[in-house]
Amino acid sequence: MTRQADDRLNVYSHPRDVPDLQENWIASQEGAAYFRCSHLNYMDTETGRTGEGKRVAVLKTKSGPDLTLPFTIGPYRHNFVIGERRLGSLGAVGLWLANPWMADGHAPKDIAKLLAHVIANESVDIIALGEIPQQSSLRAALDELPSSARKMRLGRKEDLHWMIDLPDSFEDYLSGLSASTRQSAKRKVRKLQKDFDVQFETIHDAASVDRFLEEGEKISRRTYQWNVGQRLCNDAETRASFMALAEQGRLRCYLLSLDGTPRAFLRGTVEGNLYNYETPGFDPEFAKHSIGTVILLMAIEELIGNTACRVFDFGSGGDETGYKSTFGNRSITCNSYYVVNARRPRALMILYGQTLLTSVKNLAALIIPEGDFRNKIKRLLRKYGT
């Protein structure tokens, strides 16, 4: 089914009706700065014969390829968060942009026109664009939105999307790190191997999925990520997804055990020559043993030695001081954005509530100086699971 606004604007309810969607999707990812979502994954998550849960907006252009933006649609909860503590949430109806790279090369005014049309005609509160590069056509389009659609930046500070350009050997990778980081990394691995019987497993086949999810959920429940929604769940939906990835040859996860007990996991997928890193987890009781760093280093070494991956993508959210900047060797300035429907009260509550919370955070950053007291507050804002 297709809803038409004029002869140039179309919103498709069924992605399979969109001309050349797969070809354009694949072509857009060839020059993508990082991985977001494959066409296969997008199509596999369709629900029902009518394709309910998907919307593909198309703006026909006079010359060149049409502007095509694929979305998923459904209920959404915006969380108001300080640190890793959730203060509250507000339910809404949202669209999620599945592939931002399909906007590349198009005029910002055309992208803005299509976004405004979609948010008005689909009766949604927000469009979640996810993390997008600051120097992109999609980001420029947000400054050309009409008054009925407002842009909202989620982060308080600039984000850096970190990656590792993987060399031919692990030693070459280590040599590219700073001397202090390299020495510290080697020391942490040696110390852990001295204090414990360390077992490192690579999970890539269907037969290993059940055990990985069973042990992974136990670890995940003990992390602060569990309380902010970044969970590894041993449920039917996750199991089916991991099984499918294993059958496609894309699954690559890791499990680190100390004295026979799993204490850390790292999950991700192989997407062509790119490793798509997802939220890891480790038992906080072993934080002083740096097991998060050790499993990351072992995973990087395994990918260099046993796969065709040439890029390790750390995913969204990073800065100049975190572990991503320590072990990454390339970054792109990005930020996460919403397009907010200014004609819907619930959407405006999200906009003004988040704006107020961001202002409070900015004020606190000005008042509280860098130092032990500020670091103590940051630690208190991390709520670990039980």
3D architecture notes:
It is a single chain. With 386 residues, the protein is an alpha+beta fold. It has two domains: 2-156 and 336-380, Aminopeptidase (3-Layer(aba) Sandwich); 167-309, 3-Layer(aba) Sandwich (Aminopeptidase). 35% of the residues lie in helices and 27% in strands. It has helices at 21-30, 39-44, 108-121, 137-141, 170-175, 179-195, 209-220, 236-247, 291-306, 323-327, 345-367, 372-380, and strands at 2-4, 9-12, 54-59, 67-82, 85-97, 126-133, 149-153, 159-165, 198-203, 253-258, 261-266, 268-271, 274-277, 281-282, 311-313, 330-341. Helix 6 (179-195) packs across helix 9 (291-306). It is globular and about 70 Å long. The termini are far apart.
Element layout with pairings:
Layout: E1 2-4, E2 9-12, H1 21-30, H2 39-44, E3 54-59, E4 67-82, E5 85-97, H3 108-121, E6 126-133, H4 137-141, E7 149-153, E8 159-165, H5 170-175, H6 179-195, E9 198-203, H7 209-220, H8 236-247, E10 253-258, E11 261-266, E12 268-271, E13 274-277, E14 281-282, H9 291-306, E15 311-313, H10 323-327, E16 330-341, H11 345-367, H12 372-380
Parallel strand pairs: 5-6, 13-15
Antiparallel strand pairs: 1-2, 2-3, 3-4, 4-5, 6-16, 7-16, 8-15, 8-16, 9-10, 10-11, 11-14, 12-13
User: What is the tally of beta strands?
Assistant: 16
Q: Strand count, sense and closure of the main sheet?
A: 12 strands, mixed
What is the residue-mean pLDDT, rounded to a whole number?
Answer: 90
Share of helical residues? 25-40%
The CATH topology assignment of the largest domain is: Aminopeptidase
Q: Uncertain segments of ≥5 residues (pLDDT<50)?
A: 47-51
The number of helical runs is 12
- Identify the CATH architecture of the largest domain: 3-Layer(aba) Sandwich
What structural class should be given to the helix and strand makeup?
A: alpha+beta
Helix and strand run:
EEHHEEEHEHEEHHEHHEEEEEHEHEHH
- The CATH class of the largest domain is identified as Alpha Beta
Alpha carbon gyration radius:
22 Å
Shape: globular
**Total number of distinct structural domains:** 2
Q: Work out the strand percent.
A: 25-35%
**What is the end-to-end distance?**
48 Å
